[in-house]
Structures are given as structure tokens and as C-alpha cells.
Design a protein that fits this description.
alpha+beta, four-stranded antiparallel β-sheet, 9 helices, about 45% helix
Length: about 230
């Protein structure tokens, strides 16, 4: 009986030894190294470069700073930038959006004046009528042409074109030189050193405008907004 017990114990130890060496992984389906995963250690790249941070480095990472990004034109660009900030680790509650409406520009312009002689006669007419004019720029498909006035709204430009028409100037057009747009700036008033480093080194196109230290008005506005949020 004792001999059988010894043989059983030896067999159990032999099986355990074989399993612990990984020889039975494919048979048992229970990898001997599943808890330790030494392959992860083997996959490390240059582990000797990992160094603990000193007190000064820790203090620098914890230091807060105010960062500003912009200008960002349009709501679509704003949404893309906010998504990039979130991916970098910035919380939406930490980002203040400062927006302003940028007016558009409409011009009263002539028809295309491809013929040089016709263009010269138009110039003479405008000088005789003491009208200011300049070459049209920024709209290659509509050039060459002259601009007789710039206006902050389409309605004003249309009214001026009608007034000039009544003075005998025919064929004038109202063209949109620049669409009105909402311009945004994003302010992170309390970015720690780690987040600031990540944001400044980011290659995301949505952050291509680049971060800089907050201007005095932006910092004051961010501080005021933070105070209002804290008191509410």
C-alpha cells in the first residue's frame, strides 16, 4: 500500500513538474505562465531607459498653466478641435470656448473685363464720375474686373449696385468676397505640465493652430468663467 502511495505521489510531482515547465500547455489548455506573462517583459523596448522622476520633474508636471488655441474658424473646425482635445486627455469642463462673429464682405463689381480697350474705357468713365475703384482680387474665376465698393452685408451691396445702376452704370454684380464666420478660441486655464506637453507636441491636424500662453484678456475671461462656475 505504501509503495502505491509513493508511486502516485511521484507521478503527481512529475506531472506538475512537466506542466510548470510549459510542456503540457497544448494538452491541458492551461498555460503555466498565464499569471506571470513573461513574454511581456521580453517584449520591452530599452527598459534600462525607464528612470524614476525626481522631485523637480514631478513638481513641473503638477504646475498649472493657461494655454490658448486659435483662431479656429467655423463650428465644424471647432468640433474637430474639441474631439482632438478630448483624445489628448483634456476634459470638456476644463476647456472654455470664446467665440466672436466675424462679418462677411460683399463687393459691387463690374462684369469681367477681358478686353483691354473696354477696360480702359471703364476706367475713364469711373474717373469722370469720381468713383473709387480697384482691381478685384480673391475671386480668380471672376477676374479681371473692378470693385466699386465693399460692404459688410449683402443688402447694403445690393442697394449700392441699384443706386449706381440708376446713374447709368449697367452690368454691375454683387459678389461675396468673404462669408461671415464664427471665430473661436479655446482656453485651458488650468492645464498641468503633462497635458501641456502632450498638447504642444500633438501632430493632430485639428490642433495645427498651435498652443500658446494665454493673452491677458483670455486669461481674465477664463478666470471669471471659472469663478462663476464655482459659485453656481
Amino acid at each position: 500500500m505504501m509503495r502505491v502511495l509513493v508511486i502516485v505521489l511521484l507521478a503527481i510531482n512529475a506531472v506538475f513538474f512537466a506542466w510548470s515547465r510549459g510542456w503540457l500547455d497544448t494538452v491541458t489548455g492551461l498555460p503555466a505562465e498565464s499569471g506571470r506573462e513573461p513574454h511581456r517583459l521580453a517584449a520591452q523596448q530599452n527598459p534600462e531607459r525607464i528612470q524614476p522622476l525626481g522631485a523637480s520633474s514631478v513638481a513641473a508636471l503638477a504646475q498649472k498653466s493657461c494655454l490658448e488655441l486659435g483662431p479656429i474658424d467655423g463650428d465644424a473646425a471647432l468640433a474637430a478641435t474639441q474631439a482632438a482635445l478630448k483624445a489628448a486627455g483634456a476634459h470638456a469642463s476644463d476647456v472654455q470656448v470664446q467665440s466672436s462673429e466675424q462679418p462677411g464682405v460683399w463687393v459691387v463689381a463690374t462684369i469681367k473685363l477681358a478686353d483691354a480697350d473696354f477696360r480702359a474705357r471703364k476706367e475713364e468713365t469711373y474717373r469722370r464720375m469720381r468713383l473709387n475703384f480697384e482691381p478685384l482680387e480673391g475671386l480668380p474665376a471672376e477676374q479681371p474686373a473692378f470693385v466699386l465698393g465693399r460692404y459688410p452685408s449683402q443688402q447694403e451691396a445690393t442697394a449700392e449696385a441699384a443706386a449706381l445702376d440708376r446713374r447709368g452704370l449697367k452690368g454691375l454684380r454683387v459678389l461675396t468676397l468673404k462669408e461671415p464666420v464664427t471665430r473661436h478660441r479655446l482656453v485651458l486655464s488650468q492645464a498641468d505640465g503633462l497635458l501641456a506637453t502632450k498638447l504642444k507636441s500633438s501632430k493632430d491636424p485639428a490642433l495645427a493652430a498651435g498652443f500658446k500662453a494665454c493673452s491677458a484678456p483670455s486669461a481674465a475671461s477664463a478666470a471669471s468663467a471659472a469663478g462663476s462656475a464655482a459659485s453656481s
